[in-house]
Sequence to fold (583 residues):
Amino acid sequence: MKEAVMESAKNTPPCGMPDLRVQIGSLALRNPVMTASGTFGYAREFENLVDLNQLGGIVVKGISLKPKPGNPPPRIVETACGMLNAIGLENVGVDRFITGKVPYLRTLSTPVVVNILGDSVEEYSEIARRLEGVEGVAALEVNISCPNVKKGGVAFGTVPEMAAKVTEAVRQASSLPLIVKLSPNVTDIVVMARAVADAGADAVSLINTLIGMAIDPVSRRPRLANVIGGLSGPAIKPVALRMVWQVAQAVSLPVIGIGGITTADDALEFLLAGASAVQVGTANFYDPSAAENIVQGITNYLQEQGEDRLVDIIGTLKTGTD
Amino acid sequence: MSEFQQKCSILGRDCLAPDIFRLTLQAPKIAADARPGQFVMVRVIDGLDPLLRRPFSIHRSFADGNISLLFKVIGKGTAMLARRCIGDQLDLVGPLGNGFEFSDDRPVCLIGGGMGIAPLLFLAEQLHSTGRATEKDHVLLGARNKDELTPLADEFSALGYTVQLATDDGSIGHKGFIPDLLDFVLPSVEQVYTCGPHLMMKNVVLQCQQAEVNCQVSLETHMACGMGACLGCTVNGKRGLVHVCKQGPVFNADQLEWSLE
Fold:
């Protein structure tokens, strides 16, 4: 906690500027705009296009215990205002992540959150153990919601008891702030949020992609080799916003909103609905400067509204008749 | 290597044939760094549908800071791009990818099919600018008909290359496919560069392998980001999947698995 306070002090905004700092448990962010896992690589991919030190946080590509080659192509399809992907969690594995990717990430002043995923509870806790004490890793985001793998992901993310088990195991293995990323592919996401909150999560992030499908009528074949994939982008924003609002009402943990956020207005909708931070995902692909522009847009909004602190607008959605 | 995101004004818009357009864009940073075989990701409109940028190989790059793109209208994105006007601005990210490798004065053959011709003109101009004797080099271009080839073929010829053409309808050059012409050319070249439809490239690669001539291929595939972040642009390589945007789009043909695709 002492460290977090020091971090907050370091991030003090320039005189006269609104204070954009937020806390996600003990994780202090200079502003609420993070990049979402799977949409920002290992950050270095964007170093020429984005001032990485202007971001609130960076969530890197999901990391598994062993390297994963991912699914066969085609892996992505564009849909109306969105895209479907079935990448299949291709990543370098935790050991090569630590030796090959973390040294660069460590040079950034922006906190790096590592998204982790496994085929079993033991794998999740083993990855968390290996990341424990690694300098440059500020928090973990537990992915229990990927729709594109055969084992693990969906079961962990759709059964509350399993979600709780994974959360508990990672909690025991790691002292880092623990964010659990929830799937929208459930009947009641609030039940899932409560389950991981009770199991020791410090925050929840939502939503991951919605399971979808696209077909080529000429070949009569699915457009993805995996047949089904995860829908992301502006097309899912209303669904994500609704879920964030519902979860923020139901749990006392910080909520991180994800889903189709492209502009500052999109981000503000999530913040007003109760999210303490947001993650920009698919927009990184079509507008690499989206996250930076959102930070600027939120600053402008606060100035226009005469607000000094971002935290004062979080969850201020008016739903009554007043 | 650096990439840039910049708003680029459309300076020129030519309709070369029905549905085939060439845009000239003011893109000084991209032009200054671009190498033949690299590409740009273009946002065809500012709205959200279509959502993703479209990859286009850099067709030409000029010393005055302009680049040009050559494209055919094949879907929603290219149709919208074709409707953009002179003076409009397009958001570009680039230059991306690795580009063709070329170093010495060995005789080469450039083989382009359809819009696969686009990056080869940049390569041809670059090779020519090194002062090499381009008359030893060959250019084989294929398309559906004469209209789709005429202005482009003239531009290669003007650089001194020996140009042969093939068309589906026989309206100019050989009636048939480019690989039909290749057997006569291969004995006199040491390096082949090709870009075009997959089937054409596959045949070119097989012929090159038989003749033991090195071949570089430029691939086209769906991409969301173009920068190695989405990992959506994989194809089958000899040693597992490869990413077209970062490891390519140019590959040595023997790096790729042709029989599986």
